């Protein structure tokens, strides 16, 4: 009688989901040689090849695809049963979450605290990055869940809008600018072009008659806030991240153009089958950035 271990099936399914042995190794927190060894053991047990070489990569054989199809629902049932029996307290492994600065400064801290309270054995790895980079990592399976700004439409991603923030222009009161007038001769700071906020900032400048102005770029909102507070120019930032500074008078809002709104979403891979990640996604969809109800 042939005997298979659960880790053989888990490994096979993650290779199928992510596309490569290397990606599966990273997801399972092991090495690529270990993944290869597991698949050799599995092929030895079932008596037929699961993978075949296709150029420089390995592809599932016809019988390998059939095995994956048959095992997917079985593995999903096993995972759900194990997790439900422990109410997620027994969940372990590495969970990788990507977020932008705005989410990190608003809804993310409480979300992470709740996750750790329910999953004390799991290791959370949080990376703060720009939306474009996070999306690449999600599609490459090096992130499990991401919070990102801007519109997003791709068949490979499931998203849920969790709110919006208002983007404003700020400066230090030491510059003596008229908040209602178009600023003249002031250095302009906006996020890098890899951020969806960059295009929103350029549109705002065009509307305010500053479309041809020289702009300075940063990949960090807090750095731009610090520059503005020191009198180093005006910056396009989320109002929610500078609300306290505005209230204290450390910064002023420049109202020469209207405020812009930016949507925020939480996302996972469309093919994600891990019940733990899907449960995290459902929890994240209940978060709210910016406060208030989600626009229809």
Automatic annotation (TrEMBL):
Keywords from the named record: DNA-binding, Transcription, Transcription regulation
Residues spanning the signal sequence: none
GO MF terms held by the record: DNA-binding transcription factor activity; transcription cis-regulatory region binding
Phosphoprotein keyword on record: no
Occurrences of domain HTH lysR-type (ranges): 4-61
Entries under PANTHER family matching the protein: HTH-TYPE TRANSCRIPTIONAL REGULATOR, TRANSCRIPTIONAL REGULATORY PROTEIN
Family named by the database record: Belongs to the LysR transcriptional regulatory family.
Descriptive protein name: LysR family transcriptional regulator
Species for this entry: Rhizorhabdus dicambivorans
């Amino acid at each position: 009688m042939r005997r298979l271990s659960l880790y053989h099936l888990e490994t096979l399914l993650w290779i199928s989901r992510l596309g490569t042995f290397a990606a599966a190794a990273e997801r399972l927190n092991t090495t690529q040689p270990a993944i290869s060894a597991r698949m050799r053991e599995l092929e030895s047990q079932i008596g037929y090849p699961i993978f075949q070489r296709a150029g420089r990569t390995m592809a599932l054989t016809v019988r390998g695809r059939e095995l994956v199809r048959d095992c997917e629902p079985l593995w999903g049932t096993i995972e759900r049963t194990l997790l439900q029996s422990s109410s997620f307290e027994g969940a372990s492994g590495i969970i990788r979450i990507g977020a932008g600065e705005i989410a990190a400064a608003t809804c993310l801290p409480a979300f992470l605290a709740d996750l750790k309270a329910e999953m004390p054995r799991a290791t959370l790895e949080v990376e703060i990055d720009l939306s474009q980079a996070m999306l690449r990592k999600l599609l490459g399976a090096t992130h499990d869940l991401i919070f990102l700004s801007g519109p997003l439409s791709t068949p490979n991603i499931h998203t849920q809008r969790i709110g919006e923030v208002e983007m404003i222009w700020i400066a230090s009161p030491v510059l003596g600018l008229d908040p209602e007038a178009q600023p003249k001769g002031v250095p302009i700071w906006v996020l890098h072009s890899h951020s969806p906020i960059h295009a929103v900032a350029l549109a705002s400048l065009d509307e305010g008659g500053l479309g041809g102005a020289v702009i300075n770029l940063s990949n960090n909102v807090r750095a731009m806030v610090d520059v503005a507070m020191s009198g180093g120019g005006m910056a396009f930032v989320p109002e929610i991240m500078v609300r306290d500074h505005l209230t204290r008078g450390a910064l002023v809002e420049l109202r020469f153009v209207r405020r812009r709104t930016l949507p925020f979403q939480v996302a996972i891979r469309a093919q994600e089958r891990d019940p733990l990640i899907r449960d995290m996604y459902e929890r994240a969809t209940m978060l709210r950035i910016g406060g208030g109800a989600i626009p229809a």
